[in-house]
Amino acid sequence: MRWFGPAWHDRTYMFPRLARSTIVCAVLLSLPSLADAWTQDQPFGARVHKHEFSRVLLTAEGCTVTARLFFDAPAEAYPSETASRNYYRFHARIKLDNEHVLFSGVFHNQTPGAHVFDFQEDTTASGCWAKGESHPRAVDVEGCRGRGCTPAPFK
């Protein structure tokens, strides 16, 4: 004859199993979203109006790619007493190994020192290509000096 014990005894063993099952399910459900995320960090060198652009960091989550451009603005590029002369405008183009290209909008800088510029692109309309990992192949930066200037177009 088998003794089943009190009802509370069965419940105490059921809760740890339920908790483990819940945790395992949550981890398994999160794996597809982790597969769509990637990061690429690439050093490069570009000098525009004495500003040294040195690194690009690409991160993707789902269909959105975020690019971070790192650059240093030297103090000697900002000596003018005319405030509009201490204003630089830039734009960047990042060519990727999958033949896609990221274009930043025009961004500006008006102080010396280390800076980071971030921009994003949603690739949903173009087939959500950001889900596949990409590597930067080339980074181009164009710039100009003065508040009303327009950076040269890319060649």
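Above is the first protein from milestone M3; the second protein from the same milestone is given next.
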Amino acid sequence: MLKYLVSLSFLLVTTAQARVTQLESLDFGKVVIQKNDRVSSITLLPSNTTTTTNDIYMFAKGHSAELAFEEYPAHIQLTISDFVNDEIVDNVYGGADFILNQLLYQNIITTDSYGSALLNIGGQLSTSGDSGSYYDGYYDATVEITINY
């Protein structure tokens, strides 16, 4: 049985004294790839609901990323965007790569009276489907999101 731990870190772009803190990384958990002769995927929603397709199975549940926004003006809308489009998620020990198809999140959030807000980010991760072997280990990628207000 093969087990994989997939986690993503975020590079945050912000302005002035406003601050974004990553409270949790996006973590798809430990998954088992029964076979890799077709594309399989795991979707982790911001609410931490997980679905899988084809030959990928959950071994240990993961969790969505959580970002804290602080020191923004009160009661303003923050528009969140990213450029993720089939990003490679690799293992330092080699083997087949996962593909981060997309990030899933609410793209507009509103700060509270203190200028704070929370954002949960999920995503969709797919296998290569090329019959390549996945090795046990930690798969990692860094993605960037942009915050405009």
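Note on the second protein: Residues 1-5 have pLDDT under 50 and may be disordered.
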